Records
---
Amino acid sequence: MNERTGGHRDAPVLDLDAIVDDRNTRIIVCCGSGGVGKTTTAAALGLRAAERGRSAVVLTVDPARRLAQSMGLTELDNTPRPVAGVDGEGELHAMMLDMKRTFDEIIEAHADPERARQILTNPFYQSLSSSFSGTQEYMAMEKLGQLRRSGDWDLIIVDTPPSRSALDFLDAPERLGRFLDGRLIRLLTAPAKVGGRSAFKLFNAGFGFVAGTLTKLLGAQVLKDLQTFVSALDAVFGGFRARADQTYRLLQAPGTAFVVVAAPERDAMREASYFVERLAEERMPLAGLVVNRVHRSPVSGLSAARSSAAAEDLEARGEHELTAAVLRLHADRMQLAAREHREQEHFVSAHPTVPIVQVPAMPTDVHDLEGLREVGALLAGRWRPAA
Amino acid sequence: MKARDTDWDGVRLHVVTGKGGTGKTTVAAALALALAAGGRKVLLVEVEGRQGIAQIFDLPPLPYEERKIAVAPGGGDVYALAIDPEEAMLDYLEMFYGMRRAGRALSKLGIVDFATTIAPGFRDVLVTGKTTEAVRRRDKNGRRVYDAVVLDAPPTGRIVRFLNVTNEVAGLARMGPIKNHADLVNGVVASPETAVHFVTLLEEMPVQETIDGLAELRAAGLPPGGVFTNMVRSSLLPAEAVEAASAGRFDPDELALGLKAAGLADGADAAAVASALAEEIVEHARRTELERQERASLDASGRPRYELPLLPDGVDLAGLYELAESIRTQGAA
Ligand SMILES: Nc1ncnc2c1ncn2[C@@H]1O[C@H](COP(=O)(O)OP(=O)(O)OP(=O)(O)O)[C@@H](O)[C@H]1O
Ligand SMILES: Nc1ncnc2c1ncn2[C@@H]1O[C@H](COP(=O)(O)OP(=O)(O)O)[C@@H](O)[C@H]1O
Ligand SMILES: [Mg+2]
Ligand SMILES: [Mg+2]
């Protein structure tokens, strides 16, 4: 029986202190499905790394408001800010991703000023850059690349966007690429680009039809905006793609460690499984799995069955009401713990070599440095409750 | 037939939103059952292509077609529709322009993916268009086909953009048929016939999102509905015990006596078990205190509130009816 992996005998223990202390670790990516605690884990690891002497930056995507405030993040300004209250020699910076600004900066970097202006003021760009479901993932990756290239950081810890599926983080840049290579886009940009006569004719006929229909639906101005946008973006896209490829390779580098976060629930564990498999396919280095918000009991020797039987007995006798209620509470907790344990078993049997660490559910949310410190110690498996 | 008095009499489109994973699909399904109870006809709509309705009612995947999926308590029918934006576009082109073939050609070229990527407003207007069409639809005698429509909507972060189609589309298309279509949708969505309900848990982030979401909704002139607090754990401990524990005044001695009486432990052992259990109680008390604060923040929003219990074994069909019953007894339907 292994305490730290929650009694999954075969699973090795994830030693996050060893990873954080290893100077060769340059990037830690926290990923998982929505709401499982990615942001909390990223921030807690950042603080722990800093307090163990690293100079770390945490790139958060959507921190809970009070957590952000506790790290001194009051606005979305895309700049790493020093976090006050960090003990020890190291230092911690934190930032919140501003996806629109990051997108704007890429455009400015890759297009001449006139073309950049055309793109930035185009209504389709404004819609794409603020609401495309993959933009956040793409921009998180871009920002990670920028931080890494700046060379200012000893350790970069990235949080990933709150998408339903953990895989979105890896898939989104590719999706944006596929979109810009799509047939419709080529059709819309064709008249401007194609020189050969027959090709021109072919495209033109198709274009005429598509354009006709779209004009009918949207009006001529919309179509014109769309075309301007698409061809302008097309011209800078080569640069985009090269950058995304570069960042993707960074994720495969030996200095990178993926920490997959999951809650001990069916859907989250399943997502974690998919993600682990995908990382292997992409040859991206997995550090291990954090099972967050796990319920345990300090009285694990008293089973749910015994506990409820005793409660029933007391209730029948009309004695010790409080004890009966406490025993019911305990039985519920033991049941919950057992259910959570079962949900993790599938993962462990499918991925017996993946190191695991469990983090207990705190009774309250994690929203200050003290809370982060506690979660950090739990992540490292080195937390002992105060006597 | 005469409806009973509920908090949402007169509302015909119930939009259900909330933070991801809080139980939007579950609450939407239970609300549809509750609204249908006693012989009414309700349409439950989903829009994210995830077949959540089929899963929850334990059915094979739903086609793009309104079909009866459940009978409500006391008679009444729940129909379901999984809206696929692709099909909605074909419908739309056919209905308004008789252009089914052109639609297919556009569809082949990936127009919907394209719209989803570059201008989600275009896709949203197709989806909300289909939904509001069902709200407005009348049979040949001029009677409404559905007494109510329940929409399992996108999460809080996207809800205002999703519903405020006129605004979203206006930035891109200032006139033309799409714009007119959006205005028609807006006529329903921004009217008192609509209510946008929020699903939340008693936790910091979903509560904050609910409060922010309500403010955003008001700013956009959309009608806020009720707040459904989901997965509420009943507190087993008497209030005084919780209070004492959260103030650090919980006395394990009485507990030790109780454990002895129950034959679970004796002597020094009983004291040890009691003080370990006391740790559990203190945690429970802190959690309860946090939940009290979250409830207070939700109350401050001034919206009608409903609480739905955490079903210990997850939500099966029987559980869904249980939630529907709870929604009815609280007067939300
Ligand atoms: N009252 C409840 N008691 C127990 N489990 C519940 C309850 N409500 C919802 N659940 C469970 O919580 C999970 C999430 O619920 P659901 O799918 O309805 O959420 P959602 O908000 O629609 O999620 P998403 O954002 O992914 O669409 C499901 O497994 C569901 O069975
Ligand atoms: N171990 C834990 N115990 C208690 N609350 C937690 C724990 N981990 C995370 N939380 C809380 O859960 C909520 C969601 O966490 P967050 O890190 O923002 O998730 P994600 O980034 O995966 O969406 C936050 O309010 C956070 O404080
Ligand atoms: Mg997050
Ligand atoms: Mg859902």
Note: Chain B touches chain A through 61 residues (CB under 8 Å).
---
Amino acid sequence: MPETLNYTLKDFKSENEVRWCPGCGDHAVLNGIQKAMANLGIRHEDFAVISGIGCSSRFPYYMSTFGFHTIHGRAAAIASGVKCANPKLTVWEITGDGDALAIGGNHFIHCIRRNIDLNIILFNNKIYGLTKGQYSPTTDRGFVTKTSPMGTIEDPFVPGRLVLGAGGTFFARCVDNNLKHSQEVFEEAAKFKGTSVVEVLQNCVIFNDGIHEAISDPKTREEHQIFLKHGEPMIFGNDRDKGLILDKGKLRVVKISEGGVKPEDILIHDTTDEDGFLHQSLISMKLPDFPVAMGVIRAVPSKVYDQAMEEQIAEAKSKSRISSVDQLLSSGNTWTVE
Amino acid sequence: MSIETKVIELEEVSIRFSGDSGDGMQLTGTLFSDTSSLLGNDISTFPDYPSEIRAPQGTVAGVSGFQIQFGNKKVSTPGDLAHVLVAMNPAAVKANAKFMMPGGTIFYDSDSFNQKNFEKAKFKTEDPFTELNLLDYNKVPVPITQLTREALKDLEIDNKSILRSKNMFALGLICWVFSRPLDYIEKYLTKKFGKKELVLESNLRVLHAGYNYAWNLQHMTPRYVVHPAPIEKGLYRNVNGNYATAWGLLAAAEKAGLELFIGSYPITPATEVLQALAERKDLGVKSFQAEDEIAGICTSIGAAFAGDLAVTSTSGPGFALKSEALGLSVMAELPLVVVNVQRGGPSTGLPTKTEQSDLLQTLYGRNGESPVVVVAASTPSDCFHYAYMSAKIALERMVPVVLLTDGFLGNGTEPWKVPKMAELPSITPRIAKDASKFQPYQRDPQTLAREWAFPGMDGFQHRIGGLEKDPSGNVSHDPANHQLMSEIRRDKVDRVVDMIPDLELLGEDSGDLLVVGWGGTLGHLDTAVREMHANGTKLSLAHFNYIKPLPANTAAVFSRFKNIVVCELNLGQFVGYLRDKLPEFKYHQFNKVQGLPFTIHELKDNFLKLMEE
Ligand SMILES: Cc1ncc(C[n+]2csc(CCOP(=O)(O)OP(=O)(O)O)c2C)c(N)n1
Ligand code: SF4
Ligand SMILES: [Mg+2]
């Protein structure tokens, strides 16, 4: 596209009043995505935003792009259809932890397995917001909610691990209250060809307030999060004095220049490492022993479904003698009655 | 040709090929019917196969059959009862005894009539024919296995391959009996096995061995002659309902200038629709085998939103899974064609058998007031036309359309005069043109159809969804608005009536008895009514292809008859719908739920009884 596109965030806002609760993390994510879209150099009419059902899934109504607010759990399938029908589009799927991982789990994993070129933004507030506070597939064991008055008796999914298990090629994580970082992550997700899953740690002020606070609190952010960047050492901390090394096959937090640890011992982040072992370890890091990994953790270029579909069609068209329905109907075993 | 041969001239004849599901009876039947069509006979076929791919060999459960009727006039059904049965083992005789015409001929592989196979087929004695009371039949034992072995003895092939070519022996034999030349079959085999010389050679040899054997045995085999049927001039091919459906959708896409997307999940007996479209990447088909039926319809809804002619195909259980998403397409008012190739239900039911029991599910099986257009095909080849019309209605009225076919139509074949694209009606999708005036839910005042704009179209950016909206497209929870919108969606479907033809009658314009049917029973109802008519009984047939909405003249037609009998392969679903829509009439009903089509015989009996009352 040679034309220059000078969009700003405003170009992506719709006139609909945003109805999320004041203080809900979704507001910031909306801003981040709108900013990211403005920066991408993609024509406004080529965006399609598809969502399921949940608080987060109201998202398309607040966008000025093409949008489709669908049914609970099915956004991945519907977005897959949109993208395959028209691979020129940039398709975003907005989904929640219940929408994507409970009712929509099947579509979620199969979309990832196929590697359809979608940008899936997974709003993880570890709760069902829209239905007012029941536990979700990402709620921690033992957590008390309206449907688990004595605490849940099941272990949660770790979304990134599920993505890897399904053969995922792109996984990133960000936090709702870190707008600048989120926006960068969204842009990278959009540029990646294949299914990009971005897990946004999102605060639900009403039903699960502070669930991510230990991670997200700006005061302790540098100590509790590690911002990964491809090709850069895995360093974190207020003084950027801590890092990750691999010790006997496991990740370990070390202080640089202490106990003989040299800067060159620190792991260098490689998003393109096909073998998911290290990505899996990074995804699994938890407080208090580890910082929580943020940024693009995995981005492995692979075959993309919608492209392959186009290629097969092009190949079939170039090889076949049949190029119209009339030709099809009169091909094969026919006979003429005179 | 020997003069001793007894030649029987028939107007139509029905043959059943039957054997173990591994015996290749479907191919045998298909090749025989194709040969007959080429000779100018009209044909109708019906495969009858078990739901297990390979049920235990030699058992009745494992029997796979293929029935074909061909004749010198229009043939609308595969025939109630077979004149000739080809049975590859005792179980095949047992499974088919009830489908035999009294006095018919049974060719059977005498090599397979042994103790072991009698036991497998649960015969108590060593005389299956007596045990089944098949006394008055012409039974012709043929040592098919041994003769096949003999024909191949100097070829280096294994026992399994030898046994696998037994079906060609049976085919050759039957071709002689019915005076069919072998050239078409030879050509087919050469094309199929051209590169595998040994396989080709063995199949051809066995085919000829069967043919020659019958020729040598002619003193004991009757020979049947069926003259060509007088049919309209033109280019013909055999087609089954599933292919005709797929091709009708392709034709509609081409006519509308759109690309075709199909999202689907395999399920008997609908899988072939997906397969037939997956074969057509050369025509640009985007076929998507989804992870389940929900994803099948949802990917299609996505494709409809993005501007494709979107289709999903399934059978009853899969249709049930699609209901919530079908409601979304009602609400979003997107064009969508859902094909339901019905089978016996509920639950897994009778997967390989035919039934018409998804009508109520189709009409009403969704949450909320959720009307869709319902169309039903009635012969294997008219699946093309009704699939085409379903797409036309969906695209011109921005509404989901469900096309009902069934296992009998989907798998059944008949000769079909190939249409030309230029002869098909136009299709004008409601693609929005003027961005400055576009509103997603603005409607044509006549048809109530909204306009269609999709991502990529500059200036048409808009949002739609499953929430109720006001006429301008904004989300609305206003009570009065919801009532208004519910009525609009209902009226939009009702107004499709202006696109559908009036109901036509076969037989008298008025009278004592009107037979009413819908969908896949046309062949049987039509034959029964015609035959009774030919014998001087005055009755008429009204057959429905458009179920929702009903043709405009339905009440007018019904009012001209004293009695109405609604015949369907369920416990009374269409009749219930008619009682609701047109309560001013009294309806008799005739129902069958055995996983089998009607027989002409039982229909005639029933009509006669009603006329005597
Ligand atoms: C078929 C169906 N089942 C249940 C619901 C009710 N429901 C709506 S949203 C939701 C859960 C939403 O949770 P999540 O996906 O985490 O989104 P959030 O509201 O937290 O953003 C449920 C159970 C529904 N709308 N449809
Ligand atoms: S309920 Fe929670 S998730 Fe939903 S809008 Fe309010 S704060 Fe956000
Ligand atoms: Mg949630």
Note: Residues A 20-21, 24, 26, 55, 125, 129, 204-207 surround iron/sulfur cluster (ligand 2) (CB under 6 Å).
